[in-house]
Amino acid sequence: MKEHHESSQADLSSLQQEPVKKKGLIREYAESIAIAVLLALVIRTYFVQAFKIPSGSMEDTLAIGDHLLVSKFIYGTKIPFIDKRVLTIRDPRQGDVIVFEYPEDPSKDFIKRVVGVPGDVVEGKEKKVYVNGKLYANPHEVHKEKDIIPKEMNPRDTFGPLTVPADSYFVMGDNRDRSYDSRFWKFVRRDQIKGLAFIKYWSWDSEKFRPRFGNIGRLIN
Predict the structure, then answer these.
(1) Model confidence over 128-153: pLDDT tens digits?
(2) Residue 162 sits in a domain of what CATH number?
(3) Are residues 52 and 39 both part of a single domain?
């Protein structure tokens, strides 16, 4: 009887320990997941964010289906709820490919190349762009339309001159004839810029239904 009683107590003790161990394991997993989510949010908010190219306005630099990483800290970390950046490494420069809130609809993100910085005078003459009176030779720009649209009809080919205001930037798509950019809606404010696009980490060709392996891992310049 004594041995049976001791055995029953041991079994009961074992049953009591199992739920305790399970609760401890569940709590450990929950804490790990919470920390991982918190780190992901911090990284996405302050350091690096992923973006996907939905249109052809930056062809041939960026193709539809390219997935990019954008540095959010190079232009300074944006403090939530206040219009202020800290720990700025540098300001946007001519030639930078930036992601920003579309000025006419902040819920959408656009990606374009910086052409003019604060104080620059930007002008377009029959598809050629001049900054401060000098031809802006961008080796990445392409023209897929041969016709020249008069300035009176459309600012695509001829516009300006426009002086870039303080804390603002003039941006254009590399696919010059098929980009809706600063020629049409003027400038991007500094506080609307989310970051600098710096590398393609994935690329998918939906027409051929295959990855573009040559684009993966390629730096954006």
Answers:
(1) 999 999 999 899 999 999 999 999 99
(2) 2.10.109.10
(3) no
pLDDT in tens, 105-130: 999 999 999 999 999 999 999 999 99
**Number of domains the chain contains:** 2
What predicted TM-score, i.e. pTM, was given to this entire model? 0.82
> How far apart, in Å, are the Cα atoms of 49 and each of 52, 57, 91, 194, 221?
10, 20, 19, 9, 18
Active site residue 71: no
Query: Rounded to an integer, what distance in angstroms lies between the CA atom of residue 36 and that of residue 129?
Result: 47
Catalytic residue among 112, 168, 179, 203: 112
* 128 belongs to the catalytic site: no
Residue 35 lies in a domain: yes
DSSP-assigned letter for residue 138: -
Active-site residue, selected from the candidate residues 2, 7, 32, 57? 57
Q: Which residue segment(s) compose the domain that 21 sits in? A: 1-46
| Final residue in a domain of this structure, among 31, 46, 61 | 46
